[in-house]
Write a structure and sequence with these properties.
The complex is a heterodimer. By secondary structure, chain A is mainly α. Chain A has 20 helices and three strands. In chain A, helix 5 packs antiparallel against helix 12 and helix 6 packs antiparallel against helix 11. Chain B is of the alpha/beta class. In chain B, the strands form two sheets. In chain B, strands 6-7-8-3-9-10 form a six-stranded mixed sheet, sandwiched between helices. In chain B, strand 9 and strand 10 form a beta hairpin. The chains are: A mainly alpha, B alpha/beta. At the A-B interface, helix 15 and helix 16 of A face helix 2 of B.
């Protein structure tokens, strides 16, 4: 009788105690994690309370702003590392490339259109890939000789393309000529005197330039066709190939014809719209570039992670030199779009509504914030956090990504092309880094070293957050951003130390060292980071 | 007619020659058991069929099509379901997501729900739970269920009874027998009693070679062979 009643009781009240038990169990399993988080929050709060009220509010917002930019870099890094175990050391340079491409789309959209024409022509022969593959069958070489020949074709094609692209009319800035330097162009935008440079003409006969680029593209495509294992079946050359080929040629021709009116339209846009446009263009371009990098450089090396690491490192150096070559070495800034640059009457804006006043600064809680840095950048960071979280949690692609992080082979065995998902995630991560770059350009300016600075912060954030955890990446970026801004702020106001006359003022150069020390401490206590999964 | 045929398949994993001539025929609508000791190459045989460890020579033919050099996801999409050795449940995904990820067309799961929950009623109760919270037996059921979501004509099942309590083994056998009414099954099974009760045909693999194959009924009576290759009567 008594056993029966107790059974009954345990059945009816099952939900309550078991939930409590679960919570208790969770707490016991994660007590170190919870403690570390609490200590971290405590340290930050104490550090902030040491400041005047307006100072700590400003510091928090500036920390959030830097955190948002760091988050855009680390989110891609974390997605890519989580899914494919690739640590992309060139990720900082993708960030930098995004900034430079964004600046170009914003300030010199005409150049981007000019460059697009030969690039479309260069891509056109790739649409006829089956043709090149079939032609490549006639090369009877095998093994190493075949590989060498193939790369020979690629190099000759690249050289041909390189030397003929310069014959195209490219309106570009000139790092040597002061009136035409990127820095001066930014000033012109601020003054409202900016206009497209006068159009250039083809140097030499048009036909040589066009055929030269097409030939270059064909040789490169043929080289890649030869790289395939001999004996594998070639796809049939069907109508789609011809349509794609013709379409690319037609697109190049059309672009050449409508270049002038498109230029005028873009330069007629307000700087705010142009800024959003350049954000989109830069993200798309860098995402496409990232996809290309994954397919050509990373994919052949999945069995050799060390080589992947080295190839991304090398790619980073190449990108830095490329950027120096094209945009020049001197640093320059990007003009802030009109919506965030207002001054004069009624500025700075007051209170939270001031963020929408069109002023460049706003006074909130006694602190003075820049609307762009501490408003827009943080907003974009939050939007990306929400959007990527939704993508991961709610979409089929996100489900495949989460599953692929754990058992990529099993995902493949379910009939899903994991390699294609890899490429998509790599492109997504690259695009997010580029978005960070464009956002950073108006606040911290453009320099070929900007990528390395943010990559360091991103690596610390990645390790602190727990390598493959996406929310962890966000928390890590926040920690890095706040730490940096607190140190910089104390460098200004000084830390009073008892019995010492002069307050201690940490120099901003200790920021990298301090963040690495913090990372080391956290990793010593929590080897898997704040939100990382423990590896059993 | 055979749904799946392996002819003299050789497979290397890195520099190790794991399969040195495996020949197996899986007749349409039957259950075939791959038998043999630990490390004989049974699991590798399944993985070679799926192209996860591609064959270096020999032929794998599925439904009359040579799939030896096809990519894994293409092979799977032709209608082959896989229940791997250690279940490989996606711990971060809920039970429902673990099933939904196996959909090849929208609505696959909705169409199969009744059949799947009929075989494994437990899963319906656990549908919202993350995969990591399941017990070993529940994970095994989920792994089999996952292979049933898409319209698969062949199931490759690796060690379904491994690590399960006797009651659960019985339940699992019941499920495999039921699903084999619509689907052909190639089974790797250490437990000879389980294998002999389920399968109509067998192939014994020893050091990467098929050494004996035939009807299960004959093998059960052939105590000497059983003792020699499987080490159990």
């Amino acid at each position: 009788m008594s056993t029966e009643t107790s059974d009954l009781r345990s059945q009816t009240s099952e939900a309550g105690p078991s939930k409590n038990r679960q919570r208790a169990e969770w707490l016991r399993e994660n007590r170190v994690r919870v403690t570390v988080l609490a200590v971290l929050v405590f340290v930050f709060v104490v550090a902030l309370l040491g400041l005047e009220r307006e100072d700590w509010f400003e510091t928090i917002m500036q920390g959030l702003s830097v955190g948002a930019l760091t988050f855009l870099v680390v989110s891609g890094l974390s997605l890519i590392f989580g899914l494919m175990d690739v640590f992309n050391l060139a990720h900082g340079e993708f960030f930098m490339l995004g900034a430079y491409l964004g600046w170009t789309a914003y300030t010199r959209a005409d150049t981007l259109l000019d460059v697009a024409i030969p690039l479309l022509l260069l891509a056109a022969p790739f649409a006829l890939m089956p043709l090149w593959q079939r032609l490549a069958v006639s090369i009877t070489l095998t093994g190493r000789a075949r590989k060498a020949t193939a790369w020979g074709f690629v190099i000759v094609g690249a050289l041909a393309a390189f030397f003929t692209i310069t014959r195209f009319p490219l309106v570009i800035w000139d790092a040597e000529n002061f009136a035409l330097t990127p820095a001066n162009m930014t000033v012109q935008i601020d003054l409202g005197t900016h206009a497209p440079l006068p159009a250039d003409t083809f140097s030499g006969p048009v036909i040589v330039a066009v055929l030269g680029v097409l030939l270059g593209g064909a040789l490169i495509a043929f080289g890649f066709g030869t790289l395939r294992k001999p004996g594998t079946e070639t796809e049939a050359l069907d109508r789609r190939n011809y349509v794609a080929f013709g379409g690319l040629l037609l697109a190049a021709l059309l672009l050449h014809l409508v270049k002038e009116p498109v230029n005028e339209w873009i330069f007629g846009l307000s700087t705010t719209w142009r800024f959003f446009l350049s954000m989109g263009i830069s993200v798309l371009l860098v995402a496409a570039f990232g996809a290309l990098v994954e397919v050509i450089l990373i994919r052949p090396l999945y069995d050799r992670p060390i080589y992947q690491l080295m190839i991304t490192l090398g790619l980073g150096f190449i990108l830095i030199e490329l950027v120096r070559e094209v945009w020049g070495r001197p640093e320059f800034t990007m003009a802030r779009p009109a919506a965030f640059a207002g001054t004069g009457e009624g500025c700075p804006g007051q209170g939270l509504g001031g963020f929408f006043s069109g002023c460049s600064t706003v006074e909130v809680f006694g602190g003075r914030l820049r609307v762009y840095n501490e408003g827009f950048v943080i907003l974009v960071g939050i939007v990306v956090l929400v959007a990527v979280t939704l993508l991961l949690r709610r979409s089929r692609l996100g489900m495949v990504i989460r599953a692929g992080v754990e058992h990529p082979e099993m995902v493949e065995a379910l009939g899903i092309n994991v390699r294609r998902v890899f490429t998509m995630v790599f492109a997504l991560g690259s695009g997010l880094a580029a978005l960070g770059g464009v956002l950073a350009a108006p606040s911290i300016g453009l320099s070929s070293g900007m990528g390395a600075v943010f990559l360091l912060g991103a690596i610390v954030a990645l390790a602190v957050g727990g390598l493959t955890s996406f929310p962890g990446a966000a928390v890590g970026a926040l920690v890095v951003g706040l730490l940096q801004q607190i140190i910089i702020r104390y460098g200004q106001v000084g830390i009073p130390i008892p019995f010492v006359e002069e307050p201690f003022k940490p120099s901003p150069t200790v920021v990298p060292a301090a963040s690495i020390v913090l990372m080391v401490i956290i990793l010593l206590v929590l080897p898997t980071g704040l939100l990382g999964r423990s590896e059993k | 007619m055979s749904l799946l045929e392996l002819h003299d398949v050789h497979t290397f994993i890195e520099q190790f020659h794991i399969l040195e001539g495996v020949t197996v025929e899986v007749p349409q609508g039957s259950i075939v058991a791959l038998l043999g000791r630990n490390g004989a190459g049974k699991t590798t045989t399944l993985r070679t069929v799926l192209g996860l460890n591609p064959a270096s020579s020999g032929k794998v033919i599925f439904d009359g099509v040579d799939i030896t050099e096809q990519k894994s996801f293409d092979i799977a999409a032709m209608g082959i379901g896989y229940v791997p050795e250690n279940r490989q449940i996606f711990a971060e995904l809920s039970v429902e997501e673990n099933l939904r990820i196996a959909e090849r067309n929208k609505g696959d799961l909705a169409g199969k729900e009744e059949m799947i929950f009929g075989l494994f009623p437990d899963l319906k109760r656990l549908i919202r739970l993350p995969g990591t919270n399941l017990s070993g037996g529940q994970q095994q059921m989920l792994a089999v269920a996952r292979a049933l979501v898409a319209n698969n004509r062949l199931l490759l099942i690796d060690e379904p009874s491994e690590g399960l309590a006797p009651v659960l083994i019985e339940q699992m056998m019941e499920a495999i027998r039921a699903l084999s009414e619509h689907t052909t099954v190639l089974l790797v099974e250490q437990n000879f009693i389980v294998a002999s009760r389920l399968a109509q045909h067998y192939a014994i693999i020893e050091e990467g070679r098929t050494v004996k194959a035939g009807e299960m009924g004959h093998l059960v009576e052939d105590e000497e062979t059983v003792k020699r290759y499987l080490g159990a009567a």
